[in-house]
Amino acid sequence: MARLRGGAVAAVAVLVAVAGCKSGQNKGTPGAGGGGGGGGNGAVLAAVDALTVKGRAPKTGYSRTRFGTAWADTDANSCDTRDDILKRDLKDVKFTGGTCKVSYGLLEPDPYSGKDITYRRGRSQVDIDHVVPLSDAWQKGAKYWDASKRIALANDPLNLIAVDASTNRGKGDGDAATWLPPNGRYRCTYVAAQVAVKKKYGLWVTAAEKAAMKKVLGGCPAQKLPTGGNPTKAPERFRAR
To answer: What is d(CA 213, CA 114) in angstroms, rounded to the nearest whole number?
Structure first.
């Protein structure tokens, strides 16, 4: 699990704040409340309906290394993905030795808990979460992909968000049927981001997951479908085991 700059940012739209959902911090990513997409609730529910429904496959063969080295600089901006997301999602950011390595920042508020969190490098107050967990992705299609697509998913800003570490670690590899953020105001944005990622990468959902997604999204008629992020194929120089 787990948190842009460079050319990828230009491709990302800003999500409009929605009724009953937490507005975001910036630029077409989960940390920003998702990217602006088409058509409000009609588009996001249509995207849910278009997702393939299948049972969860066995976790056999899964490991984090199947998705490449953690926080690979797939957008070639000379900053690793973790620092890119910290820079995107935190306020009052301070750096160590240049403009990549984030040493301090404020998560105000943390989207998952609603609390204000102070980030200091080397401590564990803030995680970068995969909105669609990599293990969940593995069990819903990613085990059949080539390595470049798995690496892309693991480092795609559309699927990454800076969050409170203690809250995040209760999530595990849960999908929308088994875990939602305790902060109810963020649930619409969170589920819409999961839908966007699964649509973009062609991941399937379980029947229970689809029902949970539709239940959450039914309560936020203005919610838009996030868009943007990185390409679904990582550069050839990156490898996964």
So the answer is: 21
